[in-house]
Amino acid sequence: MSTTVQNVIKKFGSYQALHRINLSIQEGEFLAILGPSGCGKTTLLRLLAGFESPTDGSILLDGIEVANAKTATPPEQRNVSMVFQSFALWPHMNVKEHIQFPLQHHRFADKAMKQDANQRIQEVLEIVNLTNFSDRMPGELSGGQKQRVSLARAIAPKPKLLLMDEPLSNLDAELRMEMRREIQNLHQLTKASIVYVTHDQGEALAMADRIVVMNNGEIEQIGTPEEIYYHPETPFVAKFVGKANLFEGSWEGDSFTLKHSNVKWKDWGISNKLKEKSIYPLRPEQITLSRKEHGELTGTIKTKQFQGRDYHYSVAVNDQVIIGHIPLSKPFEVGENVSVIPIEG
Ligand code: ATP
């Protein structure tokens, strides 16, 4: 379903968690809300679910206002399901009962689904690969299986909007990668709109159609993963998403002069908004290091990490520490003096 957040402010007492948020989510879209801890991601998701009400502004689902400062439609009356980081399973119910519950109680589960709940349960068990686990209790399941049950419970009544609050953060690294693919499959199968909260930029970049980057209760940038990664519009987005090194200096047309030096670098497609802030961003993989004096930016290797495909170096340059990911063919040692050169400059 289409979702619109209009001028939403959320205060907890005197603390303002959200500052006038405006956002629209298209029908069938997979939208990630990405940001550091405490930036307001969960609060925004809880407002969409109906667990919180806005202090000001309004929320519309399929064009119908479901919440404003005065009234709010309760969660069970929105065609929305939520998946939690903690799985939130009921200890006394087996897998099948978890899936059955929303079929009986969800206002939007249609008659056919209620009458033939067993068929829907089987369908959903197949989708989440738990066909042989229907009688297991939560205590008899692994973390990944528990999260699959919570996904199954959420999709069973065919909600039009699926809200996910860091659903993979309690799983180990390998399982997280596998579950990313499963959630993508689930999105294709259900065609529900998904709003997916995460602080992991890898997850957001990998899965979302669009990413909303939040910081301090405000939206910093909205865009496709490629736009956010290649064309960050604020220093925060450049650092948080691309782990970019940010250099200060001055722009003149397409030429950047580093602060306190004569070093000049060329534009590689940097957004005008960053240029207006007199910043030149370079992601670690956009840097090359050289032993030769290039009369450019020089520094000293502080740390070296072998990563299989490349080495990750930290280099002390003036009062800044720069991170570079350099292919294996060029090993440097800690203590070496190097020139730092942009690949695309
Ligand atoms: P995390 O990734 O750590 O879950 P988040 O981005 O989801 O963080 P929120 O949980 O939305 O952040 O919280 C945003 C801010 O609002 C935080 O400073 C938090 O302490 C505050 N906050 C959230 N809920 C409440 C509440 N019920 N009462 C008071 N303050 C709250």
From TrEMBL:
Residues 3-241 form the ABC transporter domain. Pfam families: ABC_tran (PF00005), TOBE_2 (PF08402). Gene3D superfamilies: 2.40.50.100, Nucleic acid-binding proteins (2.40.50.140), P-loop containing nucleotide triphosphate hydrolases (3.40.50.300). It comes from the Bacteria. GO terms for molecular function: ABC-type transporter activity; ATP binding; ATP hydrolysis activity. InterPro entries: AAA+_ATPase (IPR003593), ABC_transporter-like_ATP-bd (IPR003439), ABC_transporter-like_CS (IPR017871), ABC_transpr_MalK/UgpC-like (IPR047641), Mo/tungstate-bd_C_term_dom (IPR008995), NA-bd_OB-fold (IPR012340), P-loop_NTPase (IPR027417), Transp-assoc_OB_typ2 (IPR013611). GO terms for cellular component: ATP-binding cassette (ABC) transporter complex, substrate-binding subunit-containing. Keywords: ATP-binding, Cell membrane, Membrane, Nucleotide-binding, Translocase, Transport. This is ABC transporter ATP-binding protein. The lineage of its organism: Bacteria, Bacillati, Bacillota, Bacilli, Bacillales.
